[in-house]
Amino acid sequence: MTTSNKLDYLIAQLRHVIPSMRFNAARALGELGDPQAAEILIATLKNDPSPDVRRAAAIALQDMNIDLAEHGISDF
């Protein structure tokens, strides 16, 4: 699977109904480190109903060296 296909797959998984699938997708996006995932991870961090998924998105963004404060996020 190419990096582009992985990225598309993982981004789609962030919309999955099962929180553990979204959690794993967020963590995997952080490991992949593709900056194209930043905006969807920020949206996930701000809007996902699961605190665990939001936390995984925050960790993924930090792994990608994204400054959360620049996006108005200060409580992680």
Proportion in helices = 55-70%
Tell me the name of the CATH homologous superfamily. Answer: Leucine-rich Repeat Variant
What's the CATH class, please? Answer: Mainly Alpha
Q: Please state the oligomeric state of the protein chains shown.
A: single chain
Poorly predicted regions: none
Number of strands: 0
Q: Per the principal axes of the C-alpha atoms, what is the gross shape? A: globular
Question: What class would the helix/strand composition place it in?
Answer: mainly alpha
**What is the distance, rounded to the nearest whole angstrom, between the alpha carbons of the first and last residues?**
33 Å
CA-atom Rg in angstroms: 11 Å
Task: Please provide a written account of the structure.
The structure is a single chain. 28% of the residues are buried. The protein has a single domain (3-67), classed as Alpha Horseshoe (Leucine-rich Repeat Variant), CATH 1.25.10.10. With 76 residues, it is an all-alpha fold. The mean pLDDT is 93. The chain has helices at 3-13, 19-32, 38-47, 51-63. The chain is globular.
Highlighted features:
76 residues, Leucine-rich Repeat Variant, globular
In short:
The chain has helices at residues 3-13, 19-32, 38-47, 51-63. With 76 residues, it is mainly α. It starts with a helix and ends in a 13-residue tail after the last helix.
